[in-house]
Every structure is written in structure tokens, then in C-alpha cells.
Specification:
about 280 residues, alpha/beta, Oxidized Rhodanese, domain 1, 2 domains, 5-stranded parallel β-sheet, 10 strands, about 30% helix
Amino acid sequence: MTQSHSDLVSTEWLAARLAGPGLVVLDASYNLPAAARDAAGEFAAAHIPGARFLDLASLFDPGSPVPYAFPSPDQIAARLAGLGVGADDTIVIYDDSAIRTSARAWFVLTASGRGKVAILDGGLAKWRAEGRPLESGTPAVTPATPAAFTPTTRVRTKAQMLANIDSKAEQVLDARSADRVYGSGIDPVHGGQNGRIPGALNLPFSAVFNADGTWKSPEELRALFAAAGIDLARPITTTCGSGVTASVLLFALHLLGVDSAALYDGSWSEWSADPATPKAQGPDA
């Protein structure tokens, strides 16, 4: 295991256990539209042997007004059961996405009560770079009995974020790049204006990774959060463009033993679309 942390496993660790019982590998790749990539097609072409495709892009609550809303417990239970994931299985998640979508899948599962969920350090890129085996096709699976999931308490609404501007009860940390958070132009990813929630701090999600895509050490992560102005002893809510890369910061916090941090699910996509929400724009706002 990497970093002596059970929820972050190395390629060596996984390769040694691939054929073992009680282990399920899930591909949680999901790409932004601008990437023009087909995650399902790429999975069918090449994936870690035995892996199953989570289809994270479709794992959201369509009944919610929030863009790409956190899925319901029933949705999560049905998706995992359909992939043949048993209630007692250990899940290892990987991705091959520029926005590190394994973290979103990890947060969705663990914040809804699922235990024994790990992320593959370095993802498919590291696995491939090391010349490890890949297989093609879509594996046949036997559906499992749906496991129980619970409604998460770690997701914040727009109303809660509005109230927090005055109360400052929770530190708000934006995972987008600095130019999108502090710039004054048009958001290159989701459209609309750049900007941030008033009072939000910034730690770009890309900063928590080494050059090979592995996660930085706990010491390095601790220094990054400190440099961003975050007090790890106080409540934290992360945000981003649509709730995906904010989950990267939540996993980084988890590696530091902070498991109470929350996600603003609607993130800037929801906040910026509402003319009534206050917005800070520019470096000095």
C-alpha cells in the first residue's frame, strides 16, 4: 500500500491481488465535454483485467435542480449491484481522466456509508506506463444483491453556502485553477464569468499530485493546505466547477485524517448561474 494508507493503493499492491476473491476494480473515468473523449469506448478498448465500468458520468440525481447532482442512496445501490459488487467486497477505483474522477467516485461511495473503498495511486496511466496487463471488451458480471446506502450529511446546498458567507462557520476552498477563481474573463470550462464565492480560498486540485500522477505525501499535502490558508482543525467545504475536482481535495484531506469536510455539490456551475448570488471577481475582490 502507498503511504501506509489503506485507501490509497499502489499498482504493485493491486497487481498482486487482481485475481483474489472479494476485490472489485471499478473504472471511474469521466471526462469534460471539451476533452472529446469516450470513456466507455476507451474502457472497452483497454482496461485493467477484470475491471468494471462505473459510468460515473451518468451516476447523478436527474431529479435535482443541481447540475450533476450527488446521486441518491438507491441510485448508488442499484449501480453497484448491477456491476456485481457485493456488500463485503473491497473496491479499488481508478481513472484515466485529466480531472481525476476516481476521487468523485470515492467520495460518492464513502460519504454514503460504503466502507473498504480505495483509489489506485497513479491510475490507469501509471499502470499502463509500467507495462502491466490490459484487457479489452466488456466483462460479463452477475448482478449482486443491492447493499444499503445512507443519505450523505457531507453535501452543502446553495442556501447553506449563502448562509455561510455571513457566519463563516466553514472555510470554503475552491479546487479550480487560479485563473478561473481570480480571473475576470469567461470561464473556459463551463462558460459564464470567472469568479468565486466571496471569502473562498483556492487550492488547485492539480497541485496535490506528483508528476507521475501519484498523490503527494501527507507532509506535502499538509503544507499545501496551510499555504492556501486552510486550518485543518476547522470545518471545510470544497467547491469547484461542478463538484468533481472538489472531491480531489476531499480525498487529500482524508489522507490527512480530515473526514468531516463537505462538498458544495452545485459548485460554481450553480452559483454563477444565479443572478442573486454574490460573486467575487478579480484578484482583489
